[in-house]
Input
Amino acid sequence: MDETCACPGEQTAVLTVAYNGAPFCGFAKQPGQVTVQGNLEDALALVLRRNVETTCAGRTDSGVHALGQVVSFEVSEDEFADRNLHTFVRSLNALTDDALIVKDLSFKPAGFSARFDAIAREYHYHIVSGQTPPLFMKDFAWYVPGTLDVNAMRLAAKYLIGEHDFKSFCKAVSAIDKPTHRCVFDITIEPEAVLGEEVLTITVVGNAFLHSMVRTIVGTLISVGLGRRKPEWVGDVLAARDRNAAGETAPAHGLVFWQVCY
Output
């Protein structure tokens, strides 16, 4: 992040934002609710002394976290000409909720959209299994008692790679009269140690996602991992185009919107 910006052709400000989703009712503004977008836009309005409308790379549900959410908003050519950008970011962080941090500010040409110019979005879902629940990761991982067959989960995940109709994997009401085809580029399932606790991380990368799609994918894979279903069942779920055919929706607190590619 440069200290100042004096480039007249750059008129879209782009913020990289991280947040703990627990205190927020999702990203999108809602009347009478504390949301990420509402909190951020209130802070921007105070600093810029005008109303600001933002666009995000991907709306997150209530309780879902973000490490690399991207938010864009239009600015005039001279609005940042004499501003110190470090001071601007510091001011935003002083005004936003303690659970939200602006990590970076950059600029793109006018018309850039955090949402529509994104080519890939990456989510991480964290799971702790076994007989002992997590301590440090309890607010950021789904505890699943028992033993998971990770190899079976990986086989099941292969059915989801590529472009498909993911109607079975989204909140039913959100799919009414809306296109439900999406492309999943990759799903990996790998163990890692976080603060000394063993965590299974499911990484899902795609061009875009439907409402609750990643959490439903995770819940479906868990059904396979626990031996309740065979891996090939996931192919049947896709073909059904019916939310009732899939597994449960994994809890929101285990999901992190990790990063966006442009």
User: Anything to note?
Assistant: The chain is about 20% helix and 30% strand. The beta strands are 10-19, 55-56, 65-74, 100-109, 120-130, 142-145, 162-165, 181-194, 197-206, 255-261. Residues 128 and 143 are 5 Å apart (CA to CA). The first strand starts at residue 10 and ends at 19.
